[in-house]
Amino acid sequence: MDRMIEIFSKMNEKSKWTDDRVLMMAASVYVVKNRPFEVDRYIELCDYIKEETGVFSYLKSTMRFTVAAWLDTRFDDPKSAFRKYSEVYETMISKGFKRTPFTYIAALVMLEHHDDLDDWISRALTVYERMKQEHPFITSKDDYPLAVVLSEGEGEIDPLIEGMEEIYSGLHKKGFMVGNNLQFMSHMLSMDKEHSTSDLIDRVVHISDQMKRASLKVKGMHYPDVGLLVLMDDVNRLDDIRTVRDQLNKTSKYRWHRDLNYKLAVQIVLSDSLDQLEMTETSLLTSMEVIMQAQQTTMMAGAIGVAATADGGGA
C-alpha cells in the first residue's frame, strides 16, 4: 500500500490537473503487477500516446494515464506495444465494436494474447450480444471488457451464458440485488469450473456474511469484490483488506474516494495472495490472473468513464 501511495504522489506531482481517481488506478497497476516504476519513463509514455493519437481520440484525454500504466507494466517496449494496441483497437472497430473508452480497455486485454484475433473478436461480440439478450436494460458498452475476458476460453457460448444465468438467478433468490454488479459477479463465478452452481452460491452467501462481520460492507458495487474473494476461497485476508482500506481512507487525497479505496484494498491484498501461490497451483494462478484482469479492467473503465465524460469524449 505504501508503494502505491508513493507512486501516486510521483504521478500527481507531474500531472496535478489529472483526475485523482485515474492516477490512483494507474498507480495500483504497478503494485498489482509488482513492476518497477520510473516517473520520467511513465510521463514520456503518456505524452507519446497523446502525440500519436487522433484529435478526437479518447486517448487524448486522461484515459492515456491508465493505458500507459497498463502497457508499461506488461511490455519491455511499451511504445511498440502501443502501436500494436492501436491496430488491435481498429480491428475491433472494423469487426463491429463501437468507439468507446471501454473498447480501448477491452483492446488492452486482447493485446496480450492477440493470436487468432479475428476469431476472438467475433466470439467476444457474440458473448456480448448474448449478455444483452439476457439483460437488455443493464448490459451496455461498459461490459465490453468482461465479454472479451469471458470469450477468451474455449467451449460453446450457449452453455457459458446459461451457467451465468443460473448463478445470477440463484444469487437473486438469496437476496442479492439484480443489476450490472450482480451480472458481473455471476460472470466471474462462471469461470470457476471446479465447483457446482449451488456450491458457488453458498460460498457467496458465506463470504458475504464473513465480510459483514469484518466490518466490510457488501453493497451492490462490492459484488465483484465478493466474487474475487469467493474464487480465492480465502476469508483469512478480510482483516488485511479492512486494514488497507482504513489506512487509505486516512491518507491525503485517497480519503475522498472511499469506494475506490475498498476496491483497491481487495486488489492489493489478493494480488499478494496470488504471488504466494505454489508453482503446483499454476492452473489456479492463470485463472485468477484472468479474473482479476476482468475486475481490474472494470475498475479502470469506471475511473476512465467518469474522466472521459468530463473531458468530452472522442473516438
Secondary structure elements and pairings:
Blueprint: H1 2-14, H2 20-32, H3 39-52, H4 63-72, H5 78-95, H6 101-111, H7 117-134, H8 144-150, H9 157-173, H10 180-189, H11 197-213, H12 223-232, H13 238-249, H14 258-275, H15 282-311
Helix pairs in contact: 1-2, 2-4, 2-14, 2-15, 3-4, 5-6, 5-7, 6-8, 6-15, 7-8, 7-9, 9-10, 9-11, 10-12, 11-12, 12-14, 12-15, 13-14, 14-15
Mean pLDDT: 87
Terminal residue distance: 34 Å
Total number of strands: 0
Question: Can you summarize the main beta sheet?
Answer: none
What's the overall geometry?
globular
Care to describe what's here?
The structure is a single chain. This protein is mostly helical and 315 residues long. Helices cover 69% and strands 0% of the residues. The chain is globular. The two termini are 34 Å apart. 43% of the residues are buried.
Short structural summary:
The protein is mostly helical and 315 residues long. 69% of the residues lie in helices and 0% in strands. The protein has 15 helices and no strands.
Please describe the structure with a list of short key phrases separated by commas or semicolons.
315 residues; globular; mainly alpha; 69% helix
